[in-house]
Amino acid sequence: MNAEFTEKAITKQVSKWQVSCQAFAGTQLEELAAMTALCYKDDNSDMGQAVYRQVCQHYPNADAIFKNIGCRWVGYNDKTGLSGVNIDGNIIRKGSADAVQNYFLALGHAFPDACILAEKAARTLGHKTEVICKNGRVIGMVTLVLEQAVLSKNQKNENALSA
Q1: Looking at residues 143-150, what average pLDDT do you find?
Q2: CATH H-level superfamily of 5-162
Q3: Domain residue ranges of the chain, discontinuous segments joined by +
Q4: What are the TM regions of this chain, as residue ranges (predicted)?
Q5: What whole-number distance in Å separates Cα of residue 134 and Cα of residue 94?
Q6: Each residue of 78-117: pLDDT tens digit?
Q7: In which order are the strands placed within the sheet that holds 71-77?
Q8: Which helix (H) or strand (E) holds 28?
Q9: What is the pLDDT of residue 105?
Q10: 135, 86 Cβ separation under 8 angstroms
Q11: Model-level pTM?
């Protein structure tokens, strides 16, 4: 399946993470922001909270959009590698490109080539990516870059341990 990411919605450094969200073709930035906020709201990791805070900072209504609608959070599943939320008849999931691709295969859906290429490019740079999908359709990708100072400190620690 060939499709492209349309534009960068958010790029800003939060704590030790720089967060970048890219909307997939046909996805409104506000929708991606709301779905991303929902997916990361209960993620208590440093990275998850960095994404959540950044999205809510740029799109203050993202957190409030679905407050009055019943949500059912779906915690991380070791078997599928996905987590997310079910809301108002919609199934929102986030996970690695591989996990979402396997999810799509199980649903009988094609997985966009653009996701595979973007994830590979990010991985070669040492970045972490997660794909956000809604009802079996990719709506965006979150790329997380560890701050250079943290990377340098980690590398020094690794060098000291291996010496």
Answers
A1: 64
A2: Calcium-transporting ATPase, cytoplasmic domain N (3.40.1110.10)
A3: 5-162
A4: none
A5: 9
A6: 999 999 999 888 899 999 999 999 999 999 999 999 889 9
A7: 5-14, 17-24, 137-146, 128-134, 90-95, 82-87, 71-77
A8: none
A9: 94
A10: no
A11: 0.76
